[in-house]
Design a protein that fits this description.
8-stranded parallel β-barrel; 40 helices; alpha+beta; 1516 residues; single chain
C-alpha cells in the first residue's frame, strides 16, 4: 500500500475536509476509511470506519462526489481507501491542530500568538517561591510556560534524568509541607485563568535515570544482556575500555605514549595503536559471530555415517550462499551453528558409496566452506572494530583537544577516556571476573545499556534493536546518567513498563495543557503514538511540541504525522548567518506580502509543520562562546516577527545564558529591584522583550499573516508583517552583530529604507547600550558585558534617534516613503507601523466593499465611500443577466485569430507570451497557475505592477462593443479606477480578485441560459458546456450565409462597415486556434458533428436552428459544403457532411420542443440549382423538407461533378482526378458510395503534400466505396424519414431515379430494408473462414469486427480496423447483432483506445504511425508532411461513439454488464476531465500523438472533441 507518511496535511479545527476521486479512481468501486472518531465515539487508533459518499447534484457522478470529515477533534488521524478487490490502495495522515484556551472566559489562544518561555524546574526551588519567579515571564509578555520535568530526578541532577516518573520532585516541597501533583495542577490552572498563561512540560519516554529503583525491580524494562544478548560483544568492549581508561589514569600506558593528560597528535596516534593491539586483538570479538568448525564437522560426519543423506548432486559452486547459518540465541563465542539440512543438501560424496574416504572428502569440503565463512565473519567484525576505534579516538579529540569541546583534562575515573555505554552496578573487579558475570543471568540482567542519540542514523529505527551495531561500533553520543528503555512491539512485550509510562502520561495530561517530547527521535514511534493517545483521551486539545534534528522535512513529516505534533521547535541561533535565518523566516510566514486571495474551497496541499521559533534552544550553547551581546535584542526581534509561535529560555532575556544551561536558582521579579538577586524591566533586554512579545501577539491576533524578508546590508535586515484585510504593515529593521568581537564597531554607511505607505508611528525603537566595564562575579557567570536596553515605544518619527529624515519619492511606479537613518549601530532595532496613505486606504476600503458580492472574506476592511460610480451601485449579476451567450463568447473567450479578425488581438505580456484569449479566460488560465503558489514574481504580476495596460485592455475591449458588453466594460473601468490609486504591490492580488469574481459571476449567468441537463449536471458537464460559449460567436468576417427574411426570431445588428442592419447569429468554430476565423472557421462536417453536443444538449435551440437552416441554404449538387468559406467560396468535396447535417436535423426534431416545426421553416437557397450564381437572402425560399428531399433524391440519382475552379488555385496538392466528386446509392444494397482513389471525401481527409516522399496528390485515406459511418448515417436518415412520412410530417414517401429515359421510384421503406438486409452481410468479418459473403478472405487479418468500408478501389482498405464503425452503431444500432457488436467494440477498445482519443488505425497495420508532424519532410512516404494524420494519431471525437455504443449494447447484455460499462466509461472520461482542467485553453484537443502524448499541431480546443464527450455524459 502506498503510504503518504512523508506528506503533511495540517488543518485547524472547524474545517471541512473532503475526499474526492482522482482521475485514476473514477469509475471504480472506491471506499474511504478513517480512524477519525465517528460522532459519539471515542478515538481508537486501530478502529477504522467507512465514510459515506455525498452527491452534491443528486446524481451518481464520480467527478463531484466526495466524502467529508468535519474536523472538530485535534490529533493525528489516518485515512486509507480501498479500490475494488484491493483492500488498501493508498493512505495518509491528517493532523488537526488543538485549540488552547486561557482566561476566566476560556478565550482562544491562537497557535501563532504563543510566546513561550522555558523554565528548568529544578531552578525554581520550593513551590511557594514559584510565582515570583514565573512572574518574570508574565511581566515580559510571555503567555506560555514550558517546564522541564517536575518529577524526581536522578543522582546526576540533569533535568531529563528522571528517577521516578510518578513522583514529584521533593525539592519542590516547602519545609514541613509535602507538595503533590494536585498543588501543581492548582498552580497551572491559576496561571491559565488569572495570568492567561498555558503551561506545558517535558515528557521523557526513551530513558530513565540509572538510579531508578523501579527498573532494578523490573530489569526487563531496559536493554540488558539477558533480554538483549546480542549486545554482549558491545558490553565486553565497553568493560575493556573502562579498564583501559583506569590504567591510563594510573599512568600504566605513559611509556607507550598514552599519558593521563592527552595533549597532542602523538598521544592520539599512540592511543590508536593501544586500542587496536591491547583491546580489540585481545577481546577476539569475532568469535561471537563464528561457528565452531570442529564441532560442526563432527556433527556433519555423524549424520553422514547414520545415512541421513539429503543429496542430489556434486557440491554446488554456490554452496556458500546456500549454507544457512543458525544464530545462537545466547550469542556465545562460537555459539552459532549451521543448518545441517542445508549442509547435507550441498556437501555430498563424489560417488554413491558411503566409504569412509568418501565421507571424509565430504567433511573436508564442508570444513573448507566453514573456514571461508568464518573468515568473512572475522573481516566483518574487523570493520566494526575499525569504526569503533575511529569513534573512540574522535571522542577523545573532541573532549580533550578541540577548541569547541569541554577540554576535560587528564583521564580519571570521573572523566574516563570515553563514556561508558553500559551500567555496572558491582564493585570493581578484573575483566575476567566480569566476563564470568556476563553468563550469569541473575547478574547480567542488571547490565543496562545507556541511552543517547545518533547523527546520520536511520532515524526511524531503534538503535538498540537486534541488527543494529551502534553500541559495538561506539557510534552513540551516550548519556551515561540514563538507561534506555525497552518497550518491545506491544504492551504484552513489557507490561510493567507500558503501564508505568501510561500512568506517567496520564498524570501529566491531567495537569498540563501540552507536552514537549524530549528525545523524540530516540523513542520508538509506536510507543509515543500509544502514549499520546492516552494523553489525548484525557485532554483532547493537547498541545504537542518536539525538536527534531533530522535536517529533512520529509522525515520531520513522518514524526509530525504519526504523533500529531502541533509545533516543531526551530532554533534561530542554529542558523549559519542572517541570510539563512531569512530563509527560515520565509518558511514561518504563512504567505508573502501581496498574496492572492484564495477561494474558500481549495485543494488540500502539503503543508510545513507549524513552528515554534526560539531565539535560543537549551541544546545550543553558542551565545556564551560565539555570539555578541549586541545580537541578543536583534535576534529576539527577528524571532518575534515570525508568523508562528515563538519562544525563549529563562536567562536569555536577562543576558545570563548560564541559566539556559540549567544552573543556579532563578531570581524573582521585583519592579523596584536594585540588586542582582531580583529582576525587573531594567534587567538585560527584558523591556525590549516585553514590547516584542506584545507586538508578536498583536500581529498574530490581528491577522498579519503575510511576511516579507529583505536583506538591506550585510547584517541589516528588514522584516515586514502585513495584514491582507486592512493592509496595515509592521516593519522591523534590525542591525545584527552575529560574531562576537572585542571591539564593537559599525559603518556609518547605512542604506535607506523604502516603505510603501505612510509611517504612522515608531512602535519600538531600542538600542543596546554596553558599559565600559565587564561584570563577572558569583551572581553573573556569563562573562558578557554589562548592558542595558534603551527603548522608546509609540513615538513619532521626529522623535527618533535613528531616523534622520523621511521623504516621499517615486520607486517602482509607486509613491513610497524613503527613510534615511541618522545612525544604525549593531544591537539596535526600529519597528514602524505603516498604513496605506489616506487615499489608498479609502480606495482599498471601497474596492473591498464592492468585492463583498463575490466573497464575504472582503467584508473585513471594507469601507463605504462618499460617491460611488453609478455602474457599481447594482450587483454585477444584474448586468451579467443582460448578456447573451454570444456576448459571453466575447467576454470570456476569443483567441488571437478571432480578435485580429475583429481588429484587435490578445493581450501580449512583453518578454513572455500573449494570452490565449482576449476574454477573461486568457487571464484566468494564467492566474490559476500563479494563485495557488502565490508566484508574485511571475511576469504576469510584474506587468500588472509596472502599469495599467492590462486593466485598460480589459475595459476598453468591452467598451468598444457597446450594449450589455459595454456595461460590463464600464463596470471594469470603475473597479480598475480603484487599483490605480493603491500601492502597486497590491495590484496583482486585487486584479485577480476582480477578474475571478467577474469570471465566476459570468459562469453562473451562462449556466442560467442553458438546459437543465447542464444546470443540474456535474462539474465536468458544466466545463464541457462552456465549450458551447467558447466555440460559438458572432463575427462579421465569418458570418454564415443569410437566412430567409421570412424566418422568425432572427437577430439583427448594425454592421459597423456598411452601417446597415445585418443578420447576426452565431457560427460554430471547428477548433482553436487554427480553425476559428475567416474562411477556415466554418466546416460543414465539424459543425454538425458538434452541433448536438454544443447546442442541442446545452439548450441553445434557436442557434442550432439558424445554423441548420444557413447550411441548408448552401445545398448544391445534393451536398452541403465541407469548408463553408462564407458560402461563396464553399468546397463541395465532402461526401459525409450532408449526412451529419441530416442527422442533426433529426436530432433537432427529436430533442427540441416542437422541433418538427423546423421542417417547414423557409430556407433561403444560395444556389437554386447547380449552375446558379450565389443568390441574396430571400431570393429563392423553400421549406426545409424540400431541401432534405432534394439531397436524398440527388444521392439516389447519383452525384457526379467537377469542383468549380478546379486546379492549383483551389488546391495546390490535389491531382486533376481528385477534383471529380462522385456519390450515389448502390441499388442492390442501398449503401451510399462514392469517391475515388485520388480524393478523400470523409473526415479522414489528409492529402499528401510531399514531393520528396512522392506522396503529393495522393490521399492517405481515400475511403472510397461505402464508408461504414456514412452507411450508418444514411440508414438513420432513411429510417427517420419513413417515420416522419407515416406521421404526416414529411410529404415524401420515396425518391425517384431516371435511367435511360425511364423513371423509377424507390420508397424510403425499400431503401431502409435494403440497407438492413445487407449491412452485416457485407460489413461484418465473420470468424467463419469459409463465409461465402467474404470476397477477399486473404486480406482478413482480424475477425469479429466490422469493415471500415465496402467496395474500396483498394480492397485491403476495407479490412483495416479503424474507429468508424461505432458511429454507425450509435446512429443506426438496428443494423447490428448485439453479440457481434459487443465483440467488435471489445476489439476496438483493446486495440485503438488511448488515454484521450482513439487510434485512427490498427497499430498492427504495416502503415501505422502514431506521431503526427506536418512539418517533417523526408523520403518516408507514409509520414512525410503529416501523411499519417489519420493513420495512427489518436483523435478524440471518435472515443465518444465507442463509449456510447458500449453503453447502448451493454444495456442489452444485462444489468451487471451495464454497470461495469458505466464504471468503465467514467474511468475513461476522468482523463478528459483532467485534460480539461489542466488545459490553459479550457478545452479538449482534436488529437494526440500515440499514447496520449501532446501533439503540437493539433487544435488546443476542438469543437467536436468537447461536443461528443458531452454527449457521452448525456447518455450516462
Amino acid at each position: 500500500m502506498e503510504r503518504l507518511e512523508q506528506t503533511l496535511f495540517r488543518l485547524e479545527q472547524g474545517f471541512e475536509l473532503q475526499f474526492r476521486l482522482g482521475p485514476t479512481l473514477q469509475g471504480k468501486e472506491v471506499q474511504v476509511y478513517t480512524n477519525y472518531p465517528a460522532k459519539g465515539h471515542k478515538f481508537d487508533r486501530q478502529k477504522f470506519h467507512p465514510l459515506d459518499w455525498v452527491y452534491p447534484n443528486g446524481q451518481d457522478d464520480d467527478c463531484d462526489k466526495y466524502c467529508r470529515l468535519d474536523l472538530m477533534v485535534s490529533g493525528s488521524y489516518q485515512y486509507y481507501f480501498s479500490c475494488g478487490d484491493k483492500e488498501k490502495v493508498s493512505g495518509g495522515y491528517i493532523v488537526v491542530d488543538p485549540v488552547l484556551r486561557v482566561g476566566a472566559s476560556n478565550d482562544i489562544l491562537p497557535l501563532d500568538c504563543i510566546s513561550s518561555q522555558k523554565y528548568f524546574a529544578k531552578c525554581l526551588g520550593p513551590l511557594d517561591k514559584w510565582l515570583n519567579k514565573i512572574r518574570v515571564a508574565k511581566e515580559t509578555g510571555y503567555n506560555m510556560i514550558h517546564f522541564t520535568p517536575l518529577q524526581k530526578l536522578g543522582v546526576s541532577g540533569t533535568c531529563h534524568s528522571i528517577t521516578d516518573q510518578l513522583e514529584l520532585n521533593p525539592d519542590f516541597s516547602p519545609d514541613g509541607k509535602p507538595c503533590a501533583w494536585r498543588d501543581i495542577g492548582d498552580l497551572v490552572e491559576m496561571l491559565r485563568k488569572e495570568w492567561n498563561m498555558v503551561c506545558i512540560t517535558d515528557m521523557v519516554y526513551n530513558h530513565t535515570a540509572v538510579d531508578s529503583e523501579w527498573i532494578h525491580l523490573h530489569p526487563e524494562c531496559g536493554y540488558n544482556l539477558v533480554n538483549a544478548p546480542y549486545l554482549k560483544p558491545a558490553w565486553l568492549l565497553d568493560r575493556a575500555l573502562w579498564h583501559l581508561s583506569c590504567e591510563v589514569a594510573d599512568g600504566k600506558y605513559t611509556e607507550q605514549g598514552v599519558p593521563a593528560l592527552i595533549q597532542d597528535e602523538q598521544h592520539i596516534s599512540a592511543l590508536h595503536c593501544v586500542l587496536w593491539q591491547q583491546v580489540f586483538s585481545r577481546l577476539r570479538l569475532w568469535e561471537f559471530l563464528q561457528v565452531s568448525v570442529d564441532v560442526a564437522v563432527e556433527q556433519f560426519r555423524q549424520l553422514l555415517q547414520a545415512g541421513n543423506l539429503g543429496v542430489r548432486s556434486r557440491p554446488s559452486p554456490e554452496c556458500k550462499k546456500q549454507l544457512k547459518m543458525v544464530q545462537d540465541p545466547q550469542h556465545r563465542r562460537f555459539g552459532n551453528t549451521v543448518d545441517m539440512n542445508s549442509a547435507l543438501d550441498i556437501f555430498i560424496p563424489h560417488s554413491n558409496s558411503m566409504s569412509p574416504s568418501a565421507i571424509q572428502d565430504c567433511c573436508n569440503c564442508f570444513r573448507k566452506k566453514l573456514e571461508e565463512l568464518n573468515l568473512e565473519l572475522y573481516e566483518e567484525m574487523n570493520l566494526h572494530s575499525e569504526q569503533a576505534t575511529n569513534c573512540i579516538v574522535a571522542s577523545v579529540i573532541y573532549e580533550r583537544l578541540a577548541e569547541e569541546g569541554p577540554k576535560l583534562g587528564p583521564v580519571t575515573r570521573r572523566y574516563p577516556l570515553c563514556p561508558r555505554y553500559f551500567t555496572f552496578p558491582f564493585e570493581e573487579m578484573t575483566i575476567d571476573e566480569e566476563i564470568e558475570l556476563m553468563e550469569r543471568r541473575e547478574k547480567a540482567c542488571y547490565f543496562f545499556a545507556h541511552d543517547g542519540f545518533l547523527k546520520g542514523n536511520d532515524l526511524l529505527r531503534d538503535f538498540a534493536e537486534p541488527g543494529s551495531e551502534v553500541y559495538l561500533r561506539r557510534e552513540l553520543v551516550c548519556q551515561d546518567s540514563t538507561i534506555k528503555l525497552r518497550y518491545g512491539e506491544k504492551p504484552e512485550d513489557c507490561p510493567y513498563l507500558w503501564t508505568h509510562m501510561k500512568a506517567y502520561t496520564e498524570i501529566t495530561a491531567k495537569v498540563f495543557s501540552g507536552i514537549f517530547l524530549v528525545n523524540c527521535l530516540s523513542t520508538p514511534l509506536h510507543v509515543t503514538e500509544a502514549m499520546l493517545a492516552a494523553a489525548r483521551a484525557i485532554k483532547p486539545n493537547l498541545y504537542v511540541m518536539a525538536e527534531l534534528f533530522t535536517s529533512s522535512q520529509l522525515i520531520d513529516n513522518v514524526f509530525v504525522n504519526r504523533l500529531g505534533i502541533t509545533s516543531l521547535m526551530r532554533d534561530a541561533v542554529g542558523a549559519a548567518d542572517s541570510q539563512e535565518e531569512g530563509r527560515w523566516l520565509s518558511w514561518f510566514g504563512r504567505e508573502p506580502v501581496g498574496a492572492f486571495f484564495q477561494p474558500s474551497l481549495q485543494p488540500l496541499v502539503p503543508a510545513v509543520a507549524h513552528t515554534m521559533f526560539v531565539d535560543i534552544s537549551p541544546n545550543n550553547h553558542r551565545p556564551t562562546q560565539e555570539f555578541s551581546v549586541y545580537d541578543f535584542l536583534p535576534n529576539s526581534t527577528l524571532v518575534s516577527m515570525a508568523c508562528c509561535a515563538t519562544g525563549s529560555t529563562r536567562g536569555y532575556d536577562e543576558l545570563l545564558p548560564y541559566q539556559v544551561l540549567e544552573d543556579h536558582l532563578y531570581t524573582s521579579w521585583n519592579s523596584d529591584a536594585k540588586t542582582n538577586d531580583q529582576v525587573n524591566l531594567q534587567t538585560g533586554i527584558l523591556a525590549g522583550k516585553l514590547a516584542l512579545n506584545r507586538l508578536h501577539q498583536e500581529l498574530a491576533a490581528g491577522g498579519f499573516t503575510q511576511v516579507y524578508m529583505e536583506q538591506l546590508g550585510e547584517e541589516m535586515i528588514a522584516v515586514t508583517r502585513h495584514c491582507p484585510s486592512n493592509h496595515q504593515s509592521v516593519v522591523a529593521v534590525l542591525q545584527r552583530l552575529v560574531k562576537n568581537s572585542e571591539r564593537h564597531h559599525y559603518t556609518n554607511d547605512v542604506p535607506p529604507m523604502f516603505i510603501p505607505g505612510q509611517v504612522k508611528e515608531v512602535v519600538l525603537e531600542a538600542l543596546t547600550i554596553v558599559s565600559n566595564t565587564n561584570r563577572k562575579d558569583d551572581k553573573n557567570k556569563s562573562g558578557l558585558p554589562v548592558c542595558t536596553v534603551e527603548i522608546k515605544e509609540h513615538i513619532q518619527l521626529k522623535d527618533s534617534k535613528l531616523v534622520k529624515r523621511i521623504d516621499m519619492v517615486t520607486k517602482d511606479n509607486s509613491v513610497v516613503q524613503e527613510i534615511v537613518f541618522e545612525k544604525f549601530p549593531s544591537g539596535c532595532i526600529i519597528i514602524f507601523r505603516v498604513t496605506p496613505e489616506p487615499r489608498s486606504q479609502e480606495q482599498l476600503g471601497a474596492l473591498r466593499r464592492h468585492l463583498v458580492q463575490f466573497s464575504s472574506q472582503y467584508q473585513t476592511g471594507s469601507l463605504a465611500e462618499h460617491s460611488t460610480p453609478s455602474i457599481l451601485t447594482k450587483p454585477l449579476m444584474i448586468i451579467m443577466s443582460r448578456l447573451t451567450l454570444a456576448d459571453m463568447n466575447m467576454l470570456l473567450y476569443r483567441c488571437d485569430a478571432e480578435e485580429r479578425a475583429d481588429g484587435g488581438g490578445c493581450y501580449n505580456i512583453p518578454s513572455w507570451l500573449p494570452l490565449n484569449y482576449g476574454g477573461l479566460q486568457g487571464m484566468m488560465s494564467v492566474m490559476a497557475e500563479i494563485r495557488p503558489k502565490n508566484d508574485l514574481g511571475h511576469l504576469f504580476c510584474d506587468n500588472l505592477r509596472q502599469g495599467d495596460w492590462m486593466m485598460d485592455y480589459v475595459s476598453k475591449r468591452l467598451l468598444a462593443k457597446g450594449g450589455a458588453l459595454g456595461e460590463v466594460g464600464q463596470w471594469f473601468q470603475a473597479m480598475f479606477s480603484y487599483l490605480r490609486h493603491i500601492p502597486r504591490y497590491l495590484v496583482p492580488c486585487y486584479f485577480d480578485a476582480i477578474i475571478q469574481g467577474v469570471y465566476i459571476t459570468a459562469l453562473e449567468a451562462v449556466f442560467k441560459h442553458m438546459s437543465s441537463f447542464v444546470q443540474n449536471g456535474s462539474s465536468l458537464v458544466k466545463q464541457l458546456a462552456l465549450g458551447s460559449v467558447q466555440m460559438c460567436g458572432v463575427g462579421y468576417s465569418w458570418a454564415l450565409p443569410a437566412l430567409s427574411p421570412h424566418l422568425k426570431d432572427v437577430t439583427y445588428c448594425l454592421d459597423e462597415v456598411t452601417n446597415q442592419q445585418e443578420q447576426c447569429f452565431v457560427s460554430l468554430a471547428a477548433g482553436l486556434p487554427h480553425f476559428c476565423a475567416g474562411l477556415f472557421r466554418c466546416w460543414g462536417r465539424d459543425t454538425f458533428i458538434s452541433l448536438r453536443g454544443l447546442l442541442l444538449l446545452t439548450g441553445r435551440h434557436l442557434e442550432a436552428r439558424n445554423i441548420i437552416l444557413a447550411f441548408a441554404g448552401t445545398l448544391r449538387y445534393g451536398l452541403i459544403p465541407n469548408l463553408l468559406g462564407e458560402g461563396g467560396s464553399a468546397r463541395y468535396n465532402s461526401r459525409d457532411a450532408v449526412w451529419w447535417w441530416l442527422q442533426c436535423i433529426q436530432e433537432y426534431c427529436t430533442m427540441v420542443p416542437s422541433g418538427l416545426s423546423i421542417l417547414e421553416c423557409p430556407v433561403s437557397r444560395m444556389y437554386p440549382n447547380d449552375m446558379s450564381e450565389p443568390q441574396f437572402g430571400g431570393a429563392s425560399d423553400q421549406p426545409l423538407y424540400d431541401v432534405i428531399q432534394e439531397s436524398m433524391q440527388r444521392h439516389m440519382q447519383g452525384i457526379r461533378f467537377r469542383e468549380t475552379i478546379a486546379g492549383l488555385q483551389l488546391d495546390c496538392n490535389m491531382t486533376e482526378e481528385g477534383f471529380n466528386v462522385e456519390a450515389g446509392v448502390d441499388q442492390t444494397t442501398g449503401f451510399i458510395y462514392g469517391g475515388n482513389r485520388f480524393n478523400c471525401g470523409t473526415w479522414m481527409d489528409k492529402m499528401g503534400e510531399s514531393e520528396k516522399a512522392h506522396n503529393k496528390g495522393i490521399p492517405a485515406t481515400p475511403r472510397d466505396g461505402s464508408a461504414v459511418e456514412i452507411v450508418g448515417l444514411c440508414k438513420s436518415t432513411v429510417r427517420w424519414l419513413v417515420k416522419l412520412h407515416n406521421s404526416g410530417h414529411f410529404p415524401y414517401a420515396a425518391v425517384s431515379i431516371c435511367r435511360e429515359g425511364q423513371t423509377y421510384s424507390v420508397s424510403y421503406v425499400e431503401w431502409d430494408r435494403k440497407i438492413q438486409e445487407n449491412f452485416e452481410k457485407k460489413f461484418y468479418i465473420s470468424h467463419d473462414s469459409q463465409d461465402s459473403e467474404e470476397k477477399h478472405p486473404e486480406l482478413v487479418h482480424k475477425r469479429g469486427i466490422y469493415k471500415d468500408s465496402f467496395g474500396a478501389s483498394s480492397p485491403w482498405c476495407d479490412y483495416q480496423l479503424r474507429p468508424n464503425f461505432p458511429i454507425a452503431m450509435i446512429v443506426a444500432p438496428e443494423l447490428f447483432t448485439v453479440e457481434k457488436a459487443w465483440e467488435a467494440l471489445s476489439v476496438a477498445e483493446r486495440k485503438l483506445l488511448g488515454p484521450l482519443g482513439m487510434k485512427t488505425l490498427d497499430p498492427d497495420d504495416m502503415v501505422y504511425c502514431g506521431v503526427y508532424d506536418k512539418n517533417m519532410d523526408n523520403d518516408n512516404f507514409n509520414q512525410a508532411k503529416g501523411f499519417n494524420y489519420h493513420q495512427g494519431p489518436e483523435w478524440l471525437w471518435p472515443v465518444s461513439y465507442l463509449l456510447r455504443a458500449r453503453l447502448y449494447f451493454a444495456k442489452k447484455m444485462g444489468k451487471e454488464t451495464y454497470e461495469k460499462t458505466v464504471n468503465l466509461v467514467k474511468s475513461i472520461l476522468s482523463h478528459h476531465a483532467v485534460q480539461l482542467e489542466r488545459s490553459p485553453w479550457k478545452g479538449l484537443p482534436g488529437l494526440t500523438n500515440e499514447n496520449g502524448q501532446y501533439c503540437p499541431f493539433s487544435c488546443e480546443s476542438q469543437a467536436s472533441s468537447i461536443a461528443t464527450i458531452l454527449e457521452v455524459l448525456y447518455d450516462v
